[in-house]
Design a protein that fits this description.
By secondary structure, this protein is mainly α. It has one domain (5-154). The chain is built from six helices and no strands. The two termini are 22 Å apart.
Length: 164
């Protein structure tokens, strides 16, 4: 069975790639999501939970920016130049994974006061929650597409073709 580059990245160099590219960003993002729910239900914006939410948001934004830059240079550009993508599932998986930069960096910039300056005290948490939801959507699309055998969406492995 063939796998997408997304899944190959996570399966290679075990357990380090899985930790670096999946566990760290997902644990930080899930920390934000869970603490976000607590904050929305309690409206306790002066608690240690809010501080945890803020720190996780800043960390994941800049951590994922490093991942984004690294993968653009070492994977996306070389795969594109070489025509080595493994069909639509591969492009969807990697593309949606990297699209996580938008909500994650958005959260960090919001937490640092760089983004959302014009928003009021109700508008900032709404934008924050929107970024959390957007990350959950793109991350899950990336995971689902990444777990597909790329042949399911029409890619054919040239190495597996029979010689004539």
């Amino acid at each position: 069975m063939n796998m997408t580059h997304y899944m190959e990245l996570l399966a290679t160099n075990q357990p380090w790639n899985l930790i670096i590219f999946m566990a760290v960003p997902v644990v930080l993002a899930e920390t934000i999501a869970v603490t976000e729910l607590y904050l929305l239900f309690t409206n306790n914006l002066r608690s240690w939970v809010r501080q945890l939410n803020r720190v996780a948001g800043i960390l994941v934004g800049f951590y994922f920016t490093g991942i984004f830059l690294y993968l653009m240079n070492t994977a996306v550009i070389p795969l594109t130049r070489g025509g080595l993508w493994r069909g639509p599932a591969d492009v969807i998986a990697v593309g949606f994974y990297l699209a996580g930069i938008v909500p994650l960096l958005g959260i960090a910039l919001l937490e640092l006061g760089i983004l959302g300056k014009q928003r009021d005290e109700r508008g900032k948490p709404q934008l924050h929650a929107t970024f959390v939801a957007l990350f959950l959507i793109v991350a899950h699309i990336a995971m689902i597409a990444g777990m597909l055998n790329p042949e399911v969406l029409g890619w054919h492995n040239p190495a597996m073709q029979m010689p004539m």
